[in-house]
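Good morning,

Attaching, inline, the backbone tokens for the sequence recovery test we're adding to the shared suite. The designed sequence is right after.
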């Protein structure tokens, strides 16, 4: 296994594990009414997900077209849209001093839109492992550039995020 291949797969999976853990902790904090902790976790997810989504859309998703076709990759981008919307909803709700019962339920309904990305996307590594070493070099470069740029998910979505058509081009 090439160094880039190993690095990309390990990093990709570890980022998903960290997001999974933050989402589960966020769910507990929301249910407990601990909005200070919930707000911290939403911020941590926003910070971590920005570079992750950026390199996925820049290099990883285009590499998956070979396996799944353009339509499936557009569906993956649509899952990102849902996760971004959920993160925005959670940021709005957890910034309050207290949540009503309805707002608590709204937050708990939004959270799975982030969590489903973790499970669905992590399974892509089974196919990605079959890609050429050059693909992994491209993904690694994109990963490093996105991490260096350090945009939060919100910043990425509002500034440099390409359209679905640009991702599959």
């Amino acid at each position: 296994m090439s160094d880039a291949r190993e690095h990309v797969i390990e990093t990709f999976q570890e980022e998903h594990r960290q997001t999974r853990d933050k989402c589960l902790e966020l769910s507990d904090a929301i249910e407990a009414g601990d909005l200070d902790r919930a707000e911290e976790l939403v911020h941590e997810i926003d910070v971590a997900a920005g570079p992750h989504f950026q390199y996925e859309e820049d290099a990883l998703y285009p590499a998956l077209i070979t396996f799944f076709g353009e339509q499936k990759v557009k569906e993956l981008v649509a899952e990102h849209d849902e996760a971004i919307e959920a993160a925005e909803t959670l940021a709005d709700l957890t910034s309050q001093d207290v949540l009503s019962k309805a707002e608590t339920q709204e937050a708990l309904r939004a959270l799975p839109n982030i969590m489903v990305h973790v499970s669905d996307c992590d399974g892509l590594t089974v196919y990605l492992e079959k890609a050429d070493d050059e693909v992994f070099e491209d993904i690694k470069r994109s990963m490093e550039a996105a991490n260096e740029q350090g945009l939060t998910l919100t910043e990425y979505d509002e500034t440099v995020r390409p359209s679905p058509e640009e991702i599959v081009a």
